[in-house]
Amino acid sequence: MAAIKHFLELVLLFVFLFFILLSLVGFLTSIRPQKFTSNITPADIGLAYEEVSFVTNDGIKLRGWFIPSESEKAKTVILLHGYPADKGDILPALSFLNHKFNLFLFDFRSLGESGGKISTAGAKEKEDLLAAITHLKSQGIEEVGVWGFSMGGAVALMTSKEAPEIKAIISESSYARLDLMARELYRFPVLKYPLAYLTGIWSRIFLGINPKDVSPAEGVKGLEIPILVVHSKNDQVVSFKHALLIQEGLKDNPRAEFWFEEDLIHGQLGGEYQKRIEEFFEKNL
How many beta carbons lie within 10 A of that of residue 248, not counting itself? Predict the structure, then answer.
């Protein structure tokens, strides 16, 4: 009996250490993703542009592009990429906006051509968007619209209250709560809950961030600016329940709009996409 008890104790210890190691590896991989740098530039699709750089309040140098529009007195739209992509990843799909708007794209910290060693999946990336707005203000641009995809959409929603310069937002496939995304990172039934819990512990220890506090669904409460939330019910990366939580957070905003597709995958564009995106910014900027 003593031998069996000792064996069971070893098994439990092994399982415990396995959970610790697996969650730690998952956490470290997520905050230090492999860099993905697109080869495309605005010039490759016939657009004149200016390379820019600016520094965040916490000292990280970010790199981006300013693409002026030929349209007279054009407003400016900031385009925010997802994780772990870069600004070039979203440029081809959104370049149509340049007919009527100046476009400003940049790489979030630790991604693309920007500096920084750690990605926080949206928590500290708010500082990146605030720094981009500060840079644009230094160039005489006082008001902006923001389009964001996935992590970029989450950053846009969470930053708006701190940036009155943001006059309209399109958030596409955004998560609603980072702690829920931590669960969805691990696709193991039942086991995902302790793994996500441990990931939250690592986040608090190494980054000083509680994933429960990183919540676009909470951040949008009280906002009154025009917001368009775009999501697919078939999204396998950021599940549709995130869109419903954001919708609940926006229930008191009469200027919030929702475009929910039935069967598109993460990042796939719906019918009349260009028309709806362009019309939203034309109406609200």
Answer: 12
pLDDT digits (tens, 9 = 90+) for 224-248: 999 999 999 999 999 999 999 999 9
Amino acid in position 258: F
In which domain, by residue range, is 225 found?
32-177+214-284
Cα dihedral across residues 148, 107, 221, 200: positive or negative? positive
Instruction: Name residue, tokens 């939580």.
Output: 245
Taking the C-alpha atoms of residue 49 and residue 61, their distance in angstroms, rounded to an integer, is 19
For residues 12 and 35, what is the distance between their CA atoms, to the nearest angstrom? 37
For CA atoms 269, 274, 279, 284, the dihedral sign is positive
Q: Tell me whether residue 244 is exposed, middle or buried, using C-beta atoms within 10 angstroms of its C-beta: 0 to 12, 13 to 18, 19 or more.
A: middle
Residue 280 maps to a domain: yes
| Residue 246, in any domain of the structure | yes
Reported as a single tens digit per residue, the pLDDT across 41-92 is: 999 999 999 999 999 999 999 999 999 999 888 999 999 999 999 999 999 9
Question: Residue 211, preceding bond cis, omega within 30 degrees?
Answer: no
- Token reading at 166: 């943001």
Q: How many domains does the chain have?
A: 1
The answer as to whether 186 is a domain residue is no
Q: Is residue 198 part of a domain?
A: no
Residue 92 sits in a domain whose CATH number is 3.40.50.1820
Contact 161, 219 (CB under 8 A): yes
* Pair type for strands 50-55 and 144-149: unpaired
Q: Are 148 and 169 in contact (CB under 8 A)?
A: yes
Task: Summarize pLDDT for 136-193 with one digit per residue, the tens.
Answer: 999 999 999 999 999 999 999 999 999 999 999 999 999 999 999 988 877 667 678 8
CA distances (Å), 255 to each of 132, 144, 152, 247, in order?
A: 25, 17, 21, 12
Question: Phi-psi category of 31—alpha, beta or left, where left has phi over 0 and alpha has psi -120 to 50?
Answer: alpha
